[in-house]
Amino acid sequence: MEELRELINELIERGWTYSALGDALGVGRDTVKSWQDGKHPPRAPQAMALALTVLKEQDPPLKR
Predict the structure, then answer these.
(1) CB atoms near residue 56 (< 10 Å)
(2) Rounded distance, CA 44 to CA 55, Å?
(3) Cα separation of 46 and 64, whole Å?
(4) Which residues have C-beta within 8 Å of that of residue 43, sequence separation ≥ 6?
(5) Using one digit for the tens of pLDDT, what is the confidence trace for 26-60?
(6) Which residues of 7-45 are buried (b: 16+ CB within 10 A; e: fewer)?
(7) How would DSSP label each residue in the chain?
(8) What pLDDT sits at residue 20?
(9) For residues 21 and 11, what is the distance between their CA atoms, to the nearest angstrom?
(10) d(Cα 57, Cα 34) in Å, to the nearest integer?
(11) How far apart are CA 44 and CA 38, in angstroms?
């Protein structure tokens, strides 16, 4: 879970928003925020960590 929180923090620092992360992962922005806050883990933490790692290689989308 800590790895997931660190990945989300890195992406947020790089300019990703919770909404953009949620869109990329197929979940809601509040879900991403609750993972970062440690309220609950995702159902497939390894898959989400892998997806977030892939997103680190991409530039954040332009804000709407």
Answers:
(1) 11
(2) 17
(3) 29
(4) none
(5) 999 999 999 999 999 999 999 999 999 999 999 99
(6) bbeebbeeebbbbbbbebbebeeebbbbbbeeeeebeee
(7) -HHHHHHHHHHHHTT--HHHHHHHHTS-HHHHHHHHHTS---SSHHHHHHHHHHHHTSPPPPP-
(8) 96
(9) 8
(10) 23
(11) 15
The per-residue pLDDT for range 14-27, each reduced to its tens digit, is 999 999 999 999 99
Neighbours of 54 (CB within 10 A): 10
Tokens matching residue 3:
């790895």
Task: Give the tokens for residue 43.
Answer: 């159902």
Give the contacts of 12 (CB within 8 A, at least 6 positions apart): 18, 36
